[in-house]
């Protein structure tokens, strides 16, 4: 996520600087459309986030069932499940099929497939035994006749083994003798489910009256927009008057005082959340910061570009954009190569702010 924010921010200012330097204001409209498209994407993304989360969770459950069944087959194998070359042992798979086929009719029913999911500990991933059997039937039954032939069984297990060997959980030392990658894959899917399950529990909240909540949110957004529009001109006049009365350069007020005043609430709330020193609080802090950076890049720049295009204004801030780009690249590259950050790194990030003003 952090790398995405860095890429988005850097590309925004790089694109603006390059096109303005080379072509002037010719591409203002295209840039406006580009920023508006990203803005719509950021607004609609949270709507589809729960659906994406549920799909990821279902996929992890499916992988967990597959890895569990492969472990069961390995334990029940009348010989080695794979050959010395690592390929599936067809003879052993045929014996396994016949052992599972209790009524010896040449097909595996749902009742007979139940023997494959016993011992997988489905409660760890909140999956019912019946749902696990349905997943197996869906993977095996390619002919859609609600039963599994021997050829379908062998093809399905072969596909599973190939996917398991090619997964990230596969260890370098996992060979046909140990088949350690099955244990690795099973443990990895359990951890992934635990992680996604925690995220799902945190993100899903019950809303008693969704319609009234949506109406209230829209009204509050409209109210905030009206307030911002009403106080925009007085704010500019107040800044100019304050600068004239105190003999303080308007540059200092615009680039130092106002940003600190307008963003102080986000900084205070981030400090409050981070001071609790809990995983959920830290996640909320990062989510708030990421949201602020994203919306500042997309919403504010979209509005600004719209004004520049509609009013036919001239963009004359190439040096400022270049300075912002340099700061974004420095911070982004540093954050991309590390996953943990000591306290002293925050001091370096803070120093980039006065450094950019000096430039």
From TrEMBL:
<keyword id="KW-0915">Sodium</keyword>
<feature type="transmembrane region" description="Helical">
    <location>
        <begin position="286"/>
        <end position="310"/>
    </location>
</feature>
<dbReference type="InterPro" id="IPR018247">
    <property type="entry name" value="EF_Hand_1_Ca_BS"/>
</dbReference>
<dbReference type="GO" id="GO:0006814">
    <property type="term" value="P:sodium ion transport"/>
</dbReference>
<dbReference type="Pfam" id="PF13499">
    <property type="entry name" value="EF-hand_7"/>
</dbReference>
<keyword id="KW-0479">Metal-binding</keyword>
<feature type="transmembrane region" description="Helical">
    <location>
        <begin position="322"/>
        <end position="353"/>
    </location>
</feature>
<feature type="transmembrane region" description="Helical">
    <location>
        <begin position="252"/>
        <end position="274"/>
    </location>
</feature>
<keyword id="KW-0739">Sodium transport</keyword>
<feature type="domain" description="EF-hand">
    <location>
        <begin position="88"/>
        <end position="123"/>
    </location>
</feature>
<keyword id="KW-0813">Transport</keyword>
<dbReference type="GO" id="GO:0005886">
    <property type="term" value="C:plasma membrane"/>
</dbReference>
<feature type="transmembrane region" description="Helical">
    <location>
        <begin position="213"/>
        <end position="232"/>
    </location>
</feature>
<keyword id="KW-0109">Calcium transport</keyword>
<keyword id="KW-0472">Membrane</keyword>
<dbReference type="InterPro" id="IPR004713">
    <property type="entry name" value="CaH_exchang"/>
</dbReference>
<feature type="domain" description="EF-hand">
    <location>
        <begin position="128"/>
        <end position="163"/>
    </location>
</feature>
<dbReference type="Pfam" id="PF01699">
    <property type="entry name" value="Na_Ca_ex"/>
</dbReference>
<dbReference type="GO" id="GO:0005509">
    <property type="term" value="F:calcium ion binding"/>
</dbReference>
<keyword id="KW-0677">Repeat</keyword>
<dbReference type="InterPro" id="IPR044880">
    <property type="entry name" value="NCX_ion-bd_dom_sf"/>
</dbReference>
<dbReference type="GO" id="GO:0005774">
    <property type="term" value="C:vacuolar membrane"/>
</dbReference>
<dbReference type="InterPro" id="IPR004837">
    <property type="entry name" value="NaCa_Exmemb"/>
</dbReference>
<keyword id="KW-0050">Antiport</keyword>
<keyword id="KW-0812">Transmembrane</keyword>
<dbReference type="GO" id="GO:0006874">
    <property type="term" value="P:intracellular calcium ion homeostasis"/>
</dbReference>
<dbReference type="InterPro" id="IPR002048">
    <property type="entry name" value="EF_hand_dom"/>
</dbReference>
<keyword id="KW-0106">Calcium</keyword>
<protein>
    <recommendedName>
        <fullName>EF-hand domain-containing protein</fullName>
    </recommendedName>
</protein>
<keyword id="KW-1003">Cell membrane</keyword>
<dbReference type="InterPro" id="IPR011992">
    <property type="entry name" value="EF-hand-dom_pair"/>
</dbReference>
<keyword id="KW-0346">Stress response</keyword>
<keyword id="KW-1133">Transmembrane helix</keyword>
<comment type="similarity">
    <text>Belongs to the Ca(2+):cation antiporter (CaCA) (TC 2.A.19) family.</text>
</comment>
<dbReference type="GO" id="GO:0015369">
    <property type="term" value="F:calcium:proton antiporter activity"/>
</dbReference>
<keyword id="KW-0406">Ion transport</keyword>
């Amino acid at each position: 996520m952090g790398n995405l924010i860095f890429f988005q921010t850097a590309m925004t200012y790089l694109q603006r600087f390059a096109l303005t330097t080379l072509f002037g204001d010719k591409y203002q409209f295209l840039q406006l459309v580009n920023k508006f498209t990203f803005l719509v994407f950021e607004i609609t993304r949270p709507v589809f986030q729960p659906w994406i989360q549920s799909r990821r969770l279902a996929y992890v459950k499916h992988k967990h069932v597959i890895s569990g069944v492969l472990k069961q087959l390995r334990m029940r194998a009348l010989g080695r499940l794979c050959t010395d070359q690592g390929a599936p042992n067809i003879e052993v798979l045929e014996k396994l099929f016949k052992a599972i086929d209790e009524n010896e009719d040449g097909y595996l029913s749902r009742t007979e497939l139940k023997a494959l999911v016993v011992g997988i500990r489905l409660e760890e991933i909140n999956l019912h035994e019946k749902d696990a059997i349905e997943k197996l039937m869906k993977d095996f039954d390619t002919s859609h006749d609600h039963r599994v032939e021997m050829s379908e069984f062998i093809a399905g297990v072969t596909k599973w083994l190939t996917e398991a060997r090619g997964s990230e959980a596969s260890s370098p030392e996992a060979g046909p003798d140990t088949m350690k990658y099955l244990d690795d894959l099973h443990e990895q899917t359990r951890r992934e489910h635990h992680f996604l399950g925690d995220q799902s529990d945190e993100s899903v909240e019950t809303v008693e009256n969704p319609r009234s909540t949506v109406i209230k949110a829209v009204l509050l957004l409209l109210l905030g927009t009206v307030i911002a529009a009403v106080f925009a001109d007085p704010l500019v006049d107040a800044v100019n008057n304050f600068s004239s009365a105190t003999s303080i350069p308007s540059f200092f007020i615009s680039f130092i005082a106002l940003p600190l005043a307008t963003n102080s609430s986000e900084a205070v709330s981030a400090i409050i959340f981070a001071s609790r020193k809990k995983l959920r609080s830290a996640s909320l802090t990062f989510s708030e910061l990421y949201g602020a950076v994203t919306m500042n890049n997309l919403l504010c720049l979209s509005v600004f570009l719209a004004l520049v295009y509609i009013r036919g204004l001239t963009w004359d801030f190439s040096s400022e954009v270049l300075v912002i780009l340099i700061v974004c690249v420095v911070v982004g590259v540093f954050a991309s190569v590390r996953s943990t950050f000591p306290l002293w790194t925050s001091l370096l990030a803070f120093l980039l702010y006065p450094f950019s003003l000096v430039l």
